[in-house]
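Glutathione transport system permease protein GsiD: structure, please.
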Amino acid sequence: MTTLVLPRARGLWPTLARDPMMLCGLALLLALVALAMLAPWITWHDPAALAPRLRLKPISEGYWLGTDSLGRDLFSRVLYGGRLSITLAALVAVISVCAGLALGILAGYFRRLDGFIMRIIDGIMAIPGLLLAIAMVALGGASIPTMVIAISIPEIPRVARLVRSVVLSVREEPYVEASLGMGTRTVRVLWRHVLPSTINPLVVQATFICASAILIEAVLGFLGLGFPPEIPSLGSIISEGRAFFQRAPWIVLFPGAYLALLILSINLFGDALRDRLDPRMARKRNG
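Here you go.
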């Protein structure tokens, strides 16, 4: 029976101590997420409050990151924008992983469904993800449900193909065949033997889905297809600040830096987690 190699709580700190990349990525990610989630308590300006007389004000004691072209506090807008991006990315990861897991198990374990499911997945993958998101947002409007669905659809086939490849290899293992030969029900075999084998690759894939979702949401906001102006998002903040970059570069630099660090931290943690959980990477590291 396949066992999980996810580190237990007791062994988490030694694992992090032996892997500086994972430790740095996780620490940076937790710091950025904490700032975003605590935005209502660590900011004292309404991110949507207009103050034209304070427009393009540089960094000061009352405005830690300055103000934008409408006098809105950039510090609160960046944190609220990051909060929106992180929440949306988490929803996209959960939906993509759950839907892809179900499709991948069905395609990999049940041979009669394999061809039908994989042809649908191939058709979805033939459509560029960003173009599909732009079309869905343009038709359905820029709401959180629409954005989550638009970004999740291109990610589901990637998860399904990953799970299918794992299930195809596990299905032929002797312990699975022995369990079936003993009359174990299919549902129990999937739950006890097949599903645990998919957890590690899914955890790693979920981190990359989060980074991709944050980037796509920022691109949509930058192109003017994101959330309404009263809802701060990192992409829209950068887009609005382009015209004032030479006079007030902080409008673009600070949200851009937060976005870059957020994606970088997720990718650093995801890469280190993949190296830790992938048996082939572990063998290369130990060898």
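Notes: Confidence is low (pLDDT under 50) at residues 1-5.
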